[in-house]
Amino acid sequence: MNACRKPIAAAMLLLLSIVVLTGCWNSNELSDMAIVVGIGVDKDGDSGKYRVSMQIVNPSTVAANKSSGGGQNAIPNIVYSSVDHTLFSAFRKTSQKAPRRLFFAHSQMFVIGEPLAREGINGLFDLFERSRELRLTSSVVIARGMKAEDLLNILTPMQTTTATSIKDKLEVTSEVWAQNVDTDVTDIIKKVSGSGEPAISGAKAVGNPIAGRKKANLEETPPQTNIETKGIAIFAQGKLAAWLDGKAARGAVWAMNKMKSTTVNLDCGNEKQAIAIEVIRSSTRTRVHMRNGKPVLTMHIKEEGNLTETNCPLDPSNRELIVKLQNQLAEATKKEVETAIKAAQSKKSDIFGFSTEMERTQPKAWKQLEKSWPDVFAETEVEINVEAYIRRTGLRIKSYIKPEKE
Amino acid sequence: MMFYRKAQRNRKPSYQSHTDAANAASDNGGKPPISAGLADNLAYLRQELGDSPDMIVRTFEIGGNRIPAGAVYMDGITDKDMVNEYILKSLMIEAGEAMNPDEKPDILAYLKANALTIGEVHLLKDWDCIILSVLSGDTVIFLDGSPEAISGNTKGGEQRTITEPSTQVVIRGPKDGFTESIGTNVSLVRRRIKSSSVRLEPFKIGQTTKTNVAVMYIQGKAEDHVVQLLRERLSGIQIEALTGSELLEELIQDQKKSPFSTLINTERPDTVANHLLDGRIAIFVDGTPFNLIAPTTFLMNFLSTEDYYTRPEAVAAIIIVRYAALIISLFAPSIYIAAITFHQEMIPTPLLLSLASQRESVPFPAFIEALIMEFTFEILREAGIRMPRAIGQAVSIVGALVLGQAAVEAGIISSAMVIVVAITGISSFANPSYNMALSIRLIRFFLMVAAALFGFYGIAIFSIILISHMCSLSSFGVPYMTIKTPSVPEAERKTLFGIPLTKEKTKPQPAPDSGGSGAGGNDQAQPASAPSNLLNESGSS
Predict the structure, then answer these.
(1) What's the rounded Cα separation, in Å, for the pair B13 and B75?
(2) Of all helices (H) and strands (E), which one includes residue B337?
């Protein structure tokens, strides 16, 4: 019995030693890592290289950890930049500047400088798909009218890092105001690899970006320099073509079926924009038909909203009035979507995913139109139907505002 | 003393007349036969017990014939009132009055039948039985001219009274707990199940200690093969001393090398009663209030006595909490180590930043930090158990302050690690089974090493090994991970029992012919049952 046990024991020991000899493969202590929360890319002058900026959190400033020594006076985040031909080599090159190993898995924000975006962004995202360090769920914004590095350098109150600040703003505003879209890297890659074009929100500095680098920016209200999300950039052939702002941007969100909630102001008789309707649910269905050899797009929007405010005397118990408001809402929505589609068509930028729909439902026609799709798209007729409902009128039925006596 | 090795083979043990036993063993003892002379016998007994001062010898004369007689008993383990009232008084006064001085019959038999007004009396024919009898608390009477002796059961003396169990406290439920006396313990269970199917089988284990062990089960509920297996294992034990149920547990479990205990122990008679009614077997060991239950499955460790007295809905919810506590106490430190040294990308960003900020000033790798903390916690726990209660509190205060506050403030330990160690420690106390908690304590360290080497991969591998091991365990043939016992089909049972039985090393011989040729065929066989009923000392105390 022992005779046959010994070789087995020896073999087990050998196997076990293999296990131990490999050491702590891939093990990294937290205190040896620099956590990158945001990445910015700019073009570096005319050298054809990328200037990559990495925003790193200074962990000692995050929690109220008074014992960890002097953390309270440090700035919450630091940006290091490196210049190289590829993003990845720039990442690694930054090790010359950063005191710790850069850790990219928590990078939430990818900021592209507008000058670079105007030259084309299609080549930027391969690294995201290929690398195990980066996340495909990182949000993407365009630093509007400025370099990404300058945007990341602005210190923002309330949030530890600029990157999380932009990310959180983008998330919330795209849900409640819907004049921006929270686009992540996957969305862009999907659009770029098909025949569509990405739509990316913009973020811009309000105030002096250079002053925003100082810690003093955190010690004043309102902050001297702030970052706000503004507009949606539309692309043509991978290059930034135009900005959609305000209602046009919201129309684009509607057309892309990304509407979650927003607020639409409607006229109340002669009083302009006196009634606020909060859209709480909306879905957009796009269909492509062929008519006379040409594609025709039908867009059906179904939305539901609540009456949330009125500045004029109104009796919502009146059914006819509600129907009227519903029609007004449908009309307003239709107008916004039309604006957005016209703007996109003028730039030949199919951000709405029409090409995908076309390819899916009309594969034969698509084969013929595929090559000239941007031009076809610009000419395509779009029919928009809006079905609007007002479901609730809030906690109050009839407003306390009395009609003016005439 | 050799006969203990072969005792009880192939045969259901039972209370047997001591005479058979004496006959069977008389030719192997190496001791002289009992002399006919009283003085010789008493002198021999004195010599055998090393002239012990607590051995009391009372010589007297019986009846009109003035037959010299001697009563021998041990001071302290006998009930003196009984000795005086029912042995000495009966023999010295009443027997003399009743006995016809002309007759010369077998006086011992006559006395046994007519004079001794005591419940349990035996005729002893060899020294082994006599010595064991005296040491068990019986009074042994020698008569001049008789190569035999009579023992009367006078067991008694000081015992701990029945108190509330200290380790298994219930809020609602009976408050009595086992004592160190096996007789009391058996009676506590008997009182709860007044059924004629309750079976009690005695064993004596330990060549020196001769500890009484009793197996109790309900015939018809407990599975026969499990009872048989237990019997065989108990009779196969050769050990010098059995001082508690822990040792017995080690001797009769199926797999020796395992951190898991495949027998649970309890201090509560109502728990034992409940398990007996569920078809399990109780093993009582004299000298400890902790008695064993077999067979035990993994899930039984999560049952607390309280569960029998609580609404089932609440119990179901509480048991889930216990499972969660088990998982936390097993995995919490290793998952923490793996997450912050390997899988930082899995931690939500705000949490990671918070952890990173705490770890900024910590000079140790996470694994070392965890080891320091876990080890300190173990020291604290160990110190807390050993310390007298008054000092124990001081220890825990110092420990908590040093660990929780000072270490974190000094920046040596991160507060997250203190939280992890604390939740781990508390969770390990949530488990009703102390044995299980101990195993978990041990395994936790291996898991931590696995986590420090390979992260979640290591934890997964180790868990697979652990679960495979647990699935390989069995308790008296019942798989340890069985959901409900007993539910093993016949065919599987054969494979399960067949192999361990034949490979059982502690057993001198396998038992192919169960039942037929009994112990009578083996001249060394001796039943483990005592010369007198060992279990009824409670009756006299």
Answers:
(1) 31
(2) helix B312-341
Q: How far apart are CA B518 and CA A2, in angstroms?
A: 35
Inspect the interface and report whether the beta carbons of B411 and A69 lie closer than 8 Å: yes
Question: Which of A21, A27, A158 should one mutate to test binding to chain B, selecting the residue with the greatest count of B CBs within 10 A?
Answer: A27
Can you tell me which residue has the tokens 């502690």?
Answer: B506
Yes or no: say if A138 and A168 are a contact pair by the CB < 8 Å rule: no
**Between A and B, how many CB-CB pairs are < 8 A?**
89
d(CA B169, CA B445): 29
- Distance CA(B228)–CA(B10), nearest Å, equals 9
- Are the Cβ atoms of B411 and A68 closer than 8 angstroms? yes
Would the pTM of this model clear 0.90, i.e. be above it? no
Residue-wise pLDDT tens digits, B380-413: 888 877 777 777 777 777 777 777 788 888 888 8
Q: What angle do CA B453, B456, B461 make, to 5 degrees?
A: 80
Mean pLDDT of B298-322: 81
Q: Which of residues 94-153 of A touch B (CB under 8 A)?
A: 103, 105-106, 108, 135
Q: Are B245 and B234 in contact (CB under 8 A)?
A: no
Domain limits, chain A: 31-61+72-244, 245-406
Q: Are residues B359 and A108, on separate chains, in Cβ contact within 8 Å?
A: no
Measured between CA atoms, how close is A139 to chain B, in angstroms?
A: 14
B-chain residue closest to A30, CA distance: B356
Distance CA A404, CA B521 (A): 120
Alpha helices in B387-507 (DSSP H): 389-400, 407-409, 415-430, 434-454, 456-472, 490-503
Question: What is the per-residue pLDDT across B10-53, written as a single tens digit (0 to 9) for each?
Answer: 333 333 334 344 444 444 446 777 887 888 888 888 888 888 88
Distance, in Å, from the CA atom of A253 to the CA atom of A343, rounded to the nearest integer, reads 13
Residues A245-406: name the CATH superfamily.
Answer: Nutrient germinant receptor protein C, domain 3 (3.30.300.210)
Please give the order of strands across the beta sheet that includes B149-152: B55-62, B67-74, B139-143, B149-152, B121-124
